[in-house]
Automatic annotation (TrEMBL):
Gene3D superfamilies cross-referenced by the UniProt entry: 3.10.450.50
Name this protein carries in UniProt: DUF4440 domain-containing protein
Signal peptide: none
InterPro entries associated with the record: DUF4440, NTF2-like_dom_sf, Steroid_delta5-4_isomerase
Domain of life: Bacteria
SUPFAM superfamilies: NTF2-like
Pfam families documented for this protein: DUF4440
Residue ranges annotated for the DUF4440 domain, each copy included: 2-99
């Protein structure tokens, strides 16, 4: 995800998400499917987030069941000075982990 962002590559950014991901943006928009995430982020990378860097820090991993975990991530976008918080449900499919649901937001006062 970080490398895809740094490269400005929507497809690479979205590659960590499942094909049928439910993704909520920081603006509350709902994106359904990896392709929608790739297209939306491709537009961001071509516009307001061109030449920015995403740094993500995992603060919580809580296993919910075999092959399913809840994950909290805080991300910083430089030099934009934006901090986001995300809650994700990650699932293991065919031996690989992918994000099946993702809700992203900008905390109040950030």
């Amino acid at each position: 995800m970080e490398q895809g962002w740094a490269d400005g590559d929507g497809d690479a950014f979205a590659s960590v998400f499942s094909q049928d991901v439910d993704f909520v943006t920081v603006r509350g928009e709902e994106l359904f499917g990896r392709r929608a995430v790739a297209l939306g982020h491709g537009q961001l990378f071509a516009g307001p987030y061109r030449d920015t860097k995403l740094t993500a820090e995992i603060s919580l991993i809580r296993p919910l069941a075999d092959g399913i975990s809840l994950v909290h991530v805080t991300s910083s976008i430089a030099p934009a000075g934006i901090t986001t918080h995300a809650q994700a449900v990650v699932v293991q499919r065919e031996g690989a982990w992918e994000i099946a649901a993702f809700h992203n937001m900008i905390p109040k006062g950030k």
